[in-house]
UniProtKB/TrEMBL annotation:
Its EC number is 4.2.3.1. Its cofactor is pyridoxal 5'-phosphate. It comes from the Bacteria. GO terms for molecular function: threonine synthase activity. The gene is thrC. It is an enzyme of class 4 (lyase). Belongs to the threonine synthase family. Residues 98-401 form the Tryptophan synthase beta chain-like PALP domain. This is Threonine synthase. The lineage of its organism: Bacteria, Pseudomonadati, Acidobacteriota, Terriglobia, Terriglobales.
């Protein structure tokens, strides 16, 4: 199936070819972001229901093809992103694909969380099981492949950690150079170590993430560097594919709700795009409600929805220990609002203690995640309490990063010095019951046995 793609402005609707993209990926008419669309079968052409005019693929054939590719030895088939390349035909030549066998990440069931919250089924789509440990790999393989095909030598991003790790790894794999701008002192060291190890030119700027974005916007205007932040529409194309994986894992019976963390908000818009495209193509018959959870200290979308229904967004000075979502001026907020409206989802905020407790509860399921991922479980509790999620419904939580991305956070939680007394107070019993600090003993068998006896006491 040969399908051409084009780029449509999400603000004014202006349509351009790839070659007409500006360095910052914004529309010169209205400054909004672009998204990739396929004229043969995209949502914008859905009004034309004539099968003869719309080259719709066969849903059953696609499902069979994608399943068959899982047993293939070709690199592009072993990728959980490029395995679905029929729905992201963004390259002229598939030989330009840059892959680290990303995707195909597990969908775990969380029975303890389901019982505790009182919901029928709770799942976790763990994007932290990607090659560099976060969901960023899904979009990086597609966007960097486009940069590779277009002949760029340098790629660049501003990052709170995960983007830089993914970009540096894929650039190294392609034999390209990478530039990373990070806010000084506001990044988990585990993430920073990755970009260093993969050979990136890494610059710590004395500013926050949004300040790094402003500097980078000028850099790409003045140098032949391909921008790989989430404003890049080809990032979104890769990040939509977990929607296909979720559907496939559940035998094409979609969950009632999908809950995602809210940082730069590209996940909401990307996954929404994926689910809407599946429905349009007849792969599924509906879409889940997609909801966004933000940290109280980095909640511009939550405030926007409360104050004006998402019509305007006022940036905030972001402050949260969940560093991956410490973003006060999210680039993809308009796209996210559109998906929230299209799917009937909600936006909620959670505090630092709620995030830390939820992270420990996910860890107790044996899978773990980085702090930003845990806002999904913390937010689900609130959505259930508010009646937005019913006990009979199924929920998928998107976990965006591996637990080892920020091991210091985990250690401090279990030692008891992560949260202040004021933060702990409302949730003290729950938090104390989940802490598992080390027990210091002499090298004595009897002491170990006594500790074992104490641990099993009710």
């Amino acid at each position: 199936m040969q399908v051409e793609h084009q780029l449509r402005c999400t603000g004014c609707g202006r349509v351009i070819a790839q070659e007409a993209l500006k360095e910052d990926f914004r529309c010169p008419e209205c400054s909004h972001l672009y998204e990739v669309e396929y004229p043969a079968w995209s949502a914008s052409s859905a009004a034309d229901t004539s099968a003869s005019k719309r080259n719709l693929p066969n849903p059953s054939a696609l499902r069979w093809l994608w399943k068959e590719r899982r047993t293939s030895l070709e690199l592009k088939d072993q990728s959980g992103i490029w395995r679905f390349r029929d729905l992201l035909p963004i390259l002229k030549d598939e030989a330009n694909i840059v892959t680290l066998r990303e995707g195909n990440t597990p969908l775990y069931e969380l029975p303890r969380a389901a019982r505790s919250i009182g919901v029928e089924r709770v799942y976790a789509k763990h994007q932290g099981m990607n090659p560099t440990g976060s969901f960023k790999d899904a979009g990086m393989t597609t966007a960097l492949s486009v940069a590779h095909e277009r002949g760029f030598s340098w790629v660049a991003c501003a990052s709170t950690g995960n983007t830089s790790a993914a970009m540096a790894a894929y650039a190294a794999r392609a034999g390209m150079r990478s530039l990373v701008l990070i806010p000084e002192g506001k990044i988990a060291w585990g993430k920073l170590s990755q970009s260093l190890d993969y050979g990136a030119l890494t610059c710590q700027l004395r500013t926050d993430f949004d300040g790094c974005v402003r500097v980078l916007a000028e850099v790409v205007r003045r140098a032949p560097v391909f921008l790989l932040n989430s404003v890049n529409p080809y990032r979104v194309e890769g990040q939509k594919t977990p929607a296909f994986e979720i559907a496939e894992s559940l035998d094409w019976q979609l969950p009632d709700h999908l809950i995602v963390p809210g940082g730069n908000l590209a996940n909401c818009s990307a996954l929404g795009k994926g689910f809407l495209e599946m429905k349009l193509l007849g792969l599924t018959d509906r879409v889940p409600r997609i909801s966004v959870i933000q940290a109280e200290g980095a909640n511009p979308l939550y405030r926007s929805m409360q104050e004006n229904g998402g019509k305007e967004l006022t940036p905030v000075e972001a402050d949260t220990r969940a560093s991956a979502i410490r973003i006060g001026n999210p680039a993809s907020w308009r796209k996210a609002v559109r998906i929230l409206e299209a799917t009937g989802g909600w936006v909620e905020q959670v505090n630092e203690a709620e995030i830390a407790l939820a992270k420990a509860e996910i860890g107790a399921e044996g899978i773990g995640c980085e702090p930003a991922s845990a806002v999904t479980l913390a937010g689900l509790k609130k959505l259930v309490a508010q009646g937005h999620v019913q006990p009979s419904e199924s929920v998928v939580l998107l976990l965006t990063g591996h637990t080892l991305k920020d091991s210091d956070y985990t250690i401090r939680y279990h030692r008891g010095d992560l949260l202040t007394e004021e933060e702990i107070a409302p949730l003290r019993p729950e938090i104390e019951s989940t802490r598992r600090n080390t027990v210091e003993l002499d090298a004595d068998v009897d002491q170990v046995l006594r500790a074992l006896e104490k641990a099993v006491q009710p």
